[in-house]
Write a sequence for this structure.
């Protein structure tokens, strides 16, 4: 029998779900108990490899292979670090999992730690997740009290300590090497890869398994269903759908569900009287797509083929009330403010782009500014340590490709050609924090 | 030298330092603990943190100023953080922020003269399904409107 979705979000929204008894009552922690009792670490890695699971933080690296690549030398200290610093604009699935079913995440961590023979794990939690911190802390304390975390878990002889580490407001710390710097008590500056691949030289220069929250939540289901059952169930993925849809939210669907179906069948479609204009398929770092792309499956390869990406699978929908140059300015401002300042193309490029977009939106733009924007964006590509600088060009350049007429209209007339966009186009204060 | 951080907070910082192979890793949690007591990161508070973790004060200050949740100066009794990133932007956060600015008589980044509220425009709070969303201290307020702002400010002490 093919297990029906949802798997990961089945109990979200159930009152009291964050308590351990509610979790145990639906079979919670059984996959971890089975793993520790019946399976060798290597067998678990093989199962996760066979499941085809790809990391859900945005890069999509195969999870099993990542674990396989982490050296397991006898006597080495290894770490597990879970990236709960969810900050890619449009993404909210990890926060939802942490708040709604924190034990599921912990169970995935126990299995992952055992598979990689890790005895100390850290959850790097976004500082702004106040509710998530409260719920996760309580869940961890309960799990420890009941013997699911700590020394000699359920009599298996396996030890695991989990520490929740709060961030303090910095988008760049979601980048894995910047996260490790931050976890070591420094400014969140990315490290150079190579040599600092976390799997081999991660936290304190030790082999470190660095996984995303949603990735962790998949693990217990993969063990419970087996790789084939898990794959037959979809396999599932969490899409964060927001923007101009009437029923935004986390949508657990088979990976590769067409964008049109995600938006119009599962997210309520557009507001009455509105027409579809564009979307970001993978957070604000992804390239824009338009109506002609709506039948594309929301999966890694099909989106990559269009020059965009699945990323963190955050779908931000825009209807005809959205002024594209204003949306792009807001995006550029974000990356400008969050750039750590280490690499020149990112630090300077984002400032220049914002200045030019300000000029265009203030009605003082020049036609040659459009090519200038594109040239600056091109020069930011492939010239930075980390993906932050690379996150600006995709949306900016595709906006120039698909919506050049809107920019030209701003330059020519000094105003927006979209009457209804006036409300949406009002910038929320300069800089926007 | 006299400590500004209370013994209980210093003890908490020592406990935090034990959770890591290198005590320096406890710097962010320690700064959170210090700010929770003082309200912001004064030089005296950062000196105490530096001493507790065996770090130079300059290092502590360098790290503290990198992170937007650490305040270099006093802030209001309440902190209102309005998300201004894409999904909230598309759903009218500008109106919400304007209303707050108007009623409080301040701009984002400022504190009311009576010390009641600090207003901030912040980046994506990862709650886009509730856009436009804002945090009032630790509580998230979904689907904000001007009317909801009026109501909320009326109830805030």
């Amino acid at each position: 029998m093919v297990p029906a979705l949802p798997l990961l979000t089945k109990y979200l929204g159930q009152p009291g779900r964050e308590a351990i008894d509610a979790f145990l009552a639906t079979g919670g922690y059984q996959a971890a108990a089975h793993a520790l009792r019946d399976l060798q670490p290597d067998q678990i890695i093989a199962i996760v490899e066979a499941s085809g699971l790809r990391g859900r933080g945005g890069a999509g690296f195969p999870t099993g292979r990542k674990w396989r690549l982490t050296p397991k030398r006898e006597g080495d200290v290894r770490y597990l670090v879970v990236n709960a610093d969810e900050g890619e604009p449009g993404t909210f699935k990890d926060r939802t999992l942490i708040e709604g079913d924190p034990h599921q995440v912990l169970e995935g961590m126990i299995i992952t730690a055992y598979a990689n023979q890790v005895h100390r794990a850290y959850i790097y939690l976004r500082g702004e997740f106040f509710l998530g911190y409260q719920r996760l802390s309580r869940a961890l304390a309960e799990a420890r009290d009941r013997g699911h975390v700590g020394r000699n878990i359920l009599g298996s002889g396996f030890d695991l300590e989990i520490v929740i580490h709060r961030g303090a407001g910095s988008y760049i710390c979601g980048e894995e090497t910047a996260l490790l710097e931050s976890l070591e008590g420094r400014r969140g500056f990315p490290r150079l890869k190579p040599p600092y691949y976390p799997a081999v030289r991660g936290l304190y220069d030790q082999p470190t398994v660095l996984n995303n929250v949603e990735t962790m939540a998949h693990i217990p289901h993969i063990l419970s269903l087996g790789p084939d059952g898990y794959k037959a169930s979809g396999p599932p993925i969490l899409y964060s759908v927001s923007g101009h849809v009437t029923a935004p939210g986390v949508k657990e669907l088979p990976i590769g569900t067409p964008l049109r179906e995600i938006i119009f069948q599962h997210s309520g479609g557009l507001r009455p009287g509105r027409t579809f204009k564009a979307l970001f398929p993978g957070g604000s770092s992804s390239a824009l797509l338009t109506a002609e792309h709506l039948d594309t499956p929301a999966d890694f390869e099909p989106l990559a083929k269009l020059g965009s990406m699945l990323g963190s699978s955050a779908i931000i929908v825009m209807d005809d009330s959205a002024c594209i140059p204003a949306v792009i300015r807001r995006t550029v401002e974000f990356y400008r403010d969050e750039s750590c300042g280490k690499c020149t193309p990112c630090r300077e490029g984002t400032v220049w782009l914002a200045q030019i977009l300000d000029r265009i939106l203030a009605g003082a733009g020049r036609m040659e500014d459009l090519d200038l924007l594109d040239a600056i964006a091109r020069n930011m590509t492939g010239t930075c340590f980390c993906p932050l600088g690379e996150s600006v060009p995709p949306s900016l350049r595709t906006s120039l490709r698909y919506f050049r007429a809107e920019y030209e209209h701003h330059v020519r007339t000094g105003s927006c050609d979209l009457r209804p966009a006036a409300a949406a186009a009002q910038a929320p204060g300069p800089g926007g924090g | 030298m006299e400590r500004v951080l209370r013994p209980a907070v210093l003890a908490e910082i020592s406990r935090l330092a034990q959770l890591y192979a290198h005590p320096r890793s406890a710097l962010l949690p320690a700064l959170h603990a210090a700010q929770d007591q003082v309200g912001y990161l004064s030089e005296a508070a950062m000196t105490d943190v530096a001493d507790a973790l065996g770090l130079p004060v300059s290092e502590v200050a360098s790290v503290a100023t990198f992170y937007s949740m650490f305040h270099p100066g006093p802030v209001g009794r309440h902190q209102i953080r309005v998300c201004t990133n894409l999904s909230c932007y598309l759903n009218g956060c500008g109106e919400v922020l304007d209303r707050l600015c108007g009623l409080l008589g301040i701009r984002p980044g400022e504190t009311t003269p009576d010390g009641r509220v600090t207003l901030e425009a912040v980046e994506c709070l990862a709650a886009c399904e509730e856009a436009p969303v804002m945090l009032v201290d630790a509580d998230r307020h979904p689907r904000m409107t001007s009317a909801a702002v009026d109501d909320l400010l009326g109830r805030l002490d």
Notes: Chain A touches chain B through 62 residues (CB under 8 Å). The first strand of chain A starts at residue 79 and ends at 84.
